[in-house]
Write a structure and sequence with these properties.
about 10% strand; two-stranded antiparallel sheet; alpha+beta; about 475 residues
Length: about 475
């Protein structure tokens, strides 16, 4: 009987032989375009640049794979590291349970595809496989929004290391692995997967600037596992079947329900209805609140100095040190502080990379309004989440000029939901991309990238696409 690793390997190895469903192909293209934009938007971020500098240290400045937006080429592992740090730096990358997936899986796949002069079709299939596998394994483990006895309860150990299997499989797709080599790659990944450290990050504020997990480290681990298998190393194929001694034990999950990993695998693609895109470069927990707060400010033409108080009600589990932190030292602190996020959003700065401009983050007006901003758990958050996993029940109250303005949201912009307007359309996603790449590449290059990504099946050589992401292209 095949192990879970072997079934996943068979799925990944067979995927290139069959056309992707239209919805899966479309969502995978959208993920790639968004990842490109997020990477280029991060070029001025000092923490992202630390990742780029480290990549140059380990890979040099000549090689077959691009560090996006820099004009520098390096080795595949180094490019994977740097680009993961760039995509994740501003925290505006796409999200999919178990949380962040794209910054961990896309960079290794992209660097491998560029170095191998791979076709756009292979890249597209690899992105789809990586997200499908990450989503399925994520469903088997503890999740940030698990509900126990009617309460959203954060697990003691949490993180995104399970995405490493998807990233490794995606690289195997690009390289054309057969099922046997693919299984070894996944087994090696299971034995070398980074630890889940997100809960420590939540509890220790001000938080580390490497965030909930080091994106570059995760991405580089996927490249290592895939290449070691290609070189002949064998992997542990029982890793996902062994609850007592395998991956579920040492990754720290208290819940292991592996049935969804392989149920309908290869016949049914499951991730697209759960894929979300972020309009704001800020932790996703606040996005429905930002939607309503900005609407209130816009509709009533409120200026920050007129606002006496902002109170928001939202996700019930975020009363943790990193989210309640008000010691704002840098953009990383600002990405997760709830009250600072309220103050910044009320200044009506255009969503995008400007939200992470250190001058705007530390603007005395923003810091002052932060002191007049408050967050409370919404009493209906857990019950609504139980009814729909996309739900983020939120309420905002603004007191300004002696008047009170209130509004509520059920779902954040960027997520598929029963409310059609929350879906981020292609046009809206393209607008986000164009804003993110302003002042890095030309408008004509941006337009050509959009055209090539949405026609990725027709791209003969991925390097023709990455070449357009060089500065002033």
């Amino acid at each position: 009987m095949a192990t879970i690793v072997e079934e996943l390997a068979q799925f990944a190895a067979e995927a290139p032989k069959n056309p992707l469903p239209a919805e899966i192909a479309s969502e995978s293209k959208r993920i790639l375009l968004d990842s490109f934009g997020c990477a280029l938007a991060s070029l001025d971020d000092e923490n992202a640049n630390r990742g780029v500098a480290y990549a140059k240290m380990i890979g040099g400045e000549t090689g077959p794979a691009s560090i996006l937006g820099t004009g520098t080429s390096t080795t595949v592992p180094a490019a994977a590291f740097a680009n993961a740090e760039l995509v994740n730096a501003l925290d505006q990358d796409a999200v999919l349970p178990p949380g962040h997936v794209s910054p961990y899986v896309v960079p290794g796949i992209l660097a491998t595809a560029e170095a191998g002069r791979t076709s756009g079709q292979a890249l597209l299939t690899a992105i789809a496989v990586s997200h499908e596998m990450s989503f399925r394994i994520g469903k088997a483990t503890d999740y940030l929004r698990d509900i126990k006895d009617g309460i959203v309860t954060i697990p003691k150990v949490i993180g995104y290391s399970s995405t490493s299997f998807g990233g490794t499989a995606g690289i195997g797709v690009v390289k054309g692995f057969d099922a046997d080599t693919m299984a070894d790659a996944l087994g090696i990944m299971g034995s070398t997967v980074p630890t889940n450290t997100q809960r420590a990050w939540m509890m220790h504020a001000p938080a580390t600037t490497i965030k909930y997990q080091l994106a570059g480290g995760l991405a580089m681990a996927t490249v290592t596992a895939a290449n070691l298998a290609e070189l002949g190393h064998t992997g542990d194929r029982q890793m996902l079947d062994d609850r007592e001694y395998g991956f579920p034990r040492f990754i720290g999950t208290s819940r292991w329900e592996p049935a969804p990993i392989t149920e309908g695998l290869g016949a049914t693609w499951t991730f697209a209805p759960f894929q979300s895109f972020k309009p704001y470069p800020h932790c996703r927990v606040m996005h429905a609140i930002f939607d309503e707060l900005i609407s209130i400010v816009d509709t009533n033409d409120l200026r920050p100095e007129e606002i006496e108080d902002i109170t928001a009600w939202g996700e019930s589990f975020v009363q943790q040190p990193t989210w309640v932190n008000e010691d704002i030292r840098n953009p990383r602190d600002a990405q997760f502080s709830m009250t600072h996020g309220l103050a910044l959003a009320a200044h009506n700065i255009a969503p995008g990379k400007d939200w992470q401009d250190p001058e705007k983050i530390l603007d005395p007006s923003v810091m002052s309004l932060m002191e007049r901003s408050h967050f409370e758990p919404h009493p209906d958050h857990a019950s609504m989440l139980a009814s729909n996993p996309a739900a983020r029940k939120s309420k905002v109250r603004v007191i300004a000029n002696g008047q009170t303005f209130e509004g509520e949201r059920n779902y954040p912009k960027g997520s598929p939901s029963p409310e059609p307007e929350t879906y981020m359309t292609d046009e809206q996603l393209i607008a986000k991309f164009r804003h993110n790449v302003e002042d890095v590449i030309s408008d004509s290059a941006a337009e050509e990238i959009v055209e090539k990504v949405f026609a990725l099946e027709s791209v003969a050589d991925v390097s023709a696409l990455t070449g357009l992401l060089r500065p002033n292209a």
